[in-house]
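Allow me, if you will, to draw on your knowledge of protein folds for a short while. The matter concerns a single protein, recorded as an amino acid sequence and a row of backbone structure tokens. Could you please explain, in whatever detail you think fit, how the structure tokens follow from the sequence? I remain grateful for any guidance, and I place the record below:

…
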Amino acid sequence: MRLLAISDLHVDYAANRAALDALPPCPDDWLVLAGDVGHATDQIERALRTLTTRFAKVIWVPGNHELWTTSDDAPRGEALYGELVARCRACGVVTPEDPYPVWPGDGPPCVIAPLFLLYDYSFAPDGLSPEAAVDWAVESGVLCADERLLHPDPYPTREAWCEARCRLTEARLAAVPAGHEIVLVNHFPLRRDLAVLPAIPRFTVWCGTRRTETWHTRFPVRAAVSGHLHIRATHWRDGVRFEEVSFGYPRHWQAEQGLAPYLREILPGPAGPAPAGAASRFRRRPWLAVD
């Protein structure tokens, strides 16, 4: 039995949908989806229903694409998130609003914690306000589509929504029973030093919040899973494994391989930090997109 992870399926693309449809079943395994399944709600639901036929349990967190509102008559912000949660529950998919499931596999007791935290522009250089952080990114020719499409309603700003989500999540993590480890699953990386984008470095302002940078030591974290960067990698910080598990757009994966080789094993996983030189063994050629 394994806990597998992937993110950024982007099923809005026909090639990605075909790869998902061709994925062989893993009936004994659990799957965590670390966001950006897509941005069309019906296609997201179709993907979730497909995956529930392939895995024993599916656990989902939203990315920024799921939260895009692309028409004037569509739900926005928290209302859109609530609709996505309802559709997940109708499919039997675990969401950040549900009790954290306990991993039934071998090893110490472990809960899987799907997180919805957003970002607050604090991955920008010290001293920049959110408005100044966006201006700083735009100076380099980078502007995330979230500025047009991801609405924080009823919160006044995305950073206010992020703060509320972080406070709620901290309380839930603090209530995890003693003796249990935690696998954190979030769309955005939890540490600024992991949000490294060589081709568009200033895109980091849309990549997370400094509020989470010490969560892997404050809480008994066994591993942390994220996506968003479209740069698959394994990193170790303070003895904790951080996995970036993006699939990506069609140009980011090899069609002849299909989806299965891109699933990352989180549990049981390795017992400790990899030897020197081995931490990047999952790394592929970096790819980036302003989305």
Summary: The domain at 3-267 is CATH 3.60.21 (Purple Acid Phosphatase; chain A, domain 2). The CA atoms of residues 117 and 196 lie 19 Å apart. The first helix runs from residue 14 to 21.
